[in-house]
Amino acid sequence: MPPATFASQFFRRLLEAVHDHDHDVTDAALLAVSAPRRAQARLASALPRAAARRGWGRRRFELDSAASRLANVAAGLPGLERTYALLQDQASRDLLVELFLFRVLGSQHVRSPVAFTDYARARAGLEVVERDVAVVPDPHTPRLSRYRVTGPGGAAITICSAEPELASVYALGQYHHPEVHAEPGDVVLDGGAGWGDTALYFADAVGATGRVISLEISPVNAEVIAANTAANPDLPDVIEVVPFALWDRSGETLHFSEAGQASVLGSGDASGTAVETRTVDALVADLGIERLGFVKLDIEGAEPQALRGMEQTLRRDRPKLAIALYHDPMHFIDLPAAIDDLGLGYRFFLGQGAPGTPETILFAAA
To answer: Which residues of 69-103 are buried (b: 16+ CB within 10 A; e: fewer)?
Structure first.
């Protein structure tokens, strides 16, 4: 029997998904609206769901859009085959197939690798201390609440944040893979610290002998991180917030429009917020880091540039890596290949921290 390839698995699952309509799949849209509108959406979908269960009808994807997305997958098959072959376990290979299947057909025919219902339960299970304690310029989550969560080391962490981020990082372990994770004593580079969810998570993971260097370009986010750090005096005092943008060259000035966690480099003109760039290699030298142990990059699409700026550190330290792939489908091809081309013996895994296509993480360890 010939070995499985991405193409053989993907197209087999594609045919299965189109033929076997899954009437129990939860629509992504139902989780993205307010409670009254969610009830209205569920009611509107009840009749077609009932008809599908009885074989009287079937929901379908928008054909032209699906065809365009399928053509994009076909064009990228050589690169996806390489990524598929690099992945070390069947769970990661299956996840790669399911993610691209979901991108083509959507939630009406394909179950999300992380179930929407499980994610909703994770969000509902968060312990709320106080609602709406801060307003931020984030288009997706303009109001933050105060929560209490449990860190990877067992610490009780009080944090001002939002349900989606906390559910992904703390409940679903977005930046933790059984083979690749931050450990006691590690120096962690936390690229894209947001409101400090990951900074506090990593501080509890590495303990008093570790160090967490958190990169955050948004001044508003940096203020929230400072408040969250101050609210947890029992956590090890190991977090350092650095206001630079990770890039492939140091000393450049880039601009962005302030949008909280959705702030994207290059999204603003010269009148926008200015930020200076640094490479990981330069930061490691400037901060006197003897050995970098773990790198997390979730920086809104700038991951390729940051990766190009850390080759010396990769060669010297071979740190564990957790790199976001979901900002651009091409990153599923380009980022594993760029690391593998260095010939450092990295082993690759995939993880998923949310339903649908967001929050896919490439884990790598030498």
So the answer is: bbeebeebbebbeebbebbbeeebbebbbbbbbbb
Question: Does residue 344 sit in helix, strand or coil?
Answer: coil
- Determine the 3-state secondary structure of 212 from DSSP: strand
What does 282-333 look like in DSSP terms, one character per residue? HHHHHTT-S---EEEE--TT-HHHHHHTTHHHHHHH--EEEEE-TT-TTHHH
The residue assigned the tokens 């091809």 is: 333
Alpha-carbon gap, residue 313 to 310, rounded angstroms: 5
Residue type at 249?
R
Compute CA distances 288 → 211, 254, 291, 297, whole Å.
12, 25, 9, 20
Q: How far apart are CA 257 and CA 220, in angstroms?
A: 12
229 Cβ contact list (under 8 Å, min separation 6): 196, 199, 200, 235, 239
What is the pLDDT at residue 23?
A: 45
Give pLDDT tens digits for 64-99: 888 899 999 999 999 999 999 999 999 999 999 999
pLDDT of the residue at 109: 82
With 0-12 / 13-18 / 19 or more C-beta atoms within 10 angstroms meaning exposed / middle / buried, residue 157 is buried
Yes or no: say if 169 and 353 are a contact pair by the CB < 8 Å rule.
Answer: yes
3-state SS class at 241: strand
**Rounded to whole angstroms, how far apart are CA atoms 50 and 133?**
42
Instruction: Give pLDDT, residue 24.
Output: 46
What is the maximum span of the chain, computed from C-alpha positions, in angstroms? 67
What are the tokens at 35?
Answer: 């409670």
Distance in angstroms (rounded) separating the CA atoms of residues 347 and 361: 14
CA distance 87 to 220: 38
Which residues, given as ranges, of the chain have pLDDT below 50?
23-25
Distances from the Cα of 328 to the Cα of 73, 280, 299, 359, angstroms: 13, 21, 12, 11
